[in-house]
Amino acid sequence: MKLVFFTNPQKENAPELMEKLAEEAREKGFDTLSASTDEGLEELLSRGVSDLLCVVTIGGDGTVLRAVSSASEYGVPVLGVNMGRVGFFSEVDTGSFEEALGKLISGDYTVEHPSMLTCLLNGRPVGDCLNDFSVHRQELSSITQLELVIDGDTVGNVMADGLIVATPSGSTAYTMSAGGPVVAPKLDCILVTPICPHSLTVRPIVSSVDSVVEVTLKCACGLSGDGRQTAVLSPGDRLVFSRSERSASFIRFNKRNVFRLIREKLM
After folding, report:
1. By residue range, what is the domain housing residue 143?
2. Shortest CA distance to 18 belongs to which of 55, 65, 57?
3. Which of 31, 38, 61, 210 is catalytic?
């Protein structure tokens, strides 16, 4: 079996730790490959590595999200090894990695498939995200102005610092910081949360997972996906968010309690 190791080389000690964990895997009988850039991981996975079990990420949630961006396209699971501050998506830390290898060998794990979002900008694909897309103001002194429509029904004009469209996975990320709800693990839906709205009537919305969320811009804004700048938007641009045909895949050794993770990791 093969494992692909992926990390952020800018993180202190990350390359050295990746090599250490890869050596542990080789001692257990795994073949290993490695990548340290998004482009490198994409190129490696696109070649169709035979007998590939998963991508092992070493870092925090940002590293996991970058790996999922490529791995989800090829249906490859991700195993997160946390060396960041939060590590909400990670399954193990570096100290328990050897035990995790044993479970991989014995097949003592499950694969979780959280839903993802896709986005069209003026009819053209922008990309897919695991956590969220956010429309945000470009200047500190300005606000975003947009028209929001869900499933063909006009919600109204939104004046705010921005708008977040998120998956249940993203409910514990930017959406939660903006006052959105935490979604229980078995509920699949799309969350629409205004950022600091300038009206008391604009509240977070929980919509069906099959909903289509349309946003028409009335000012210049920025669009980010999973925390990374994706596009600069102009007045009149139209965004359409919906469930992606892709889904992420995560190696899990134990049942996850999202509420315990919030208590432990976000205190």
Report:
1. 117-245
2. 57
3. 61
pLDDT at 265 (0 to 100): 63
Sign of the CA dihedral with 108 first, then 114, 120, and 126 last:
negative
Query: The domain spanning residue 139 has which CATH number?
Result: 2.60.200.30
The tally of domains found in the chain comes to: 2
pTM: 0.92
Bridge-based pairing of strands 205-208 and 189-195 is antiparallel
Name the average pLDDT for the chain.
92
CATH of the domain at 20: 3.40.50.10330
Residue 138 shares a structural domain with residue 161: yes
Residues 6+ apart with CB under 8 A from 69: 38, 127, 128, 130, 226
What tens digit of pLDDT does each residue of 81-92 get?
998 666 788 899
Of the candidate ranges 8-17, 59-68, 148-157, 218-227, the one whose mean pLDDT is the lowest: 8-17
Same domain, 82 and 135: no
Active site residue 31: no
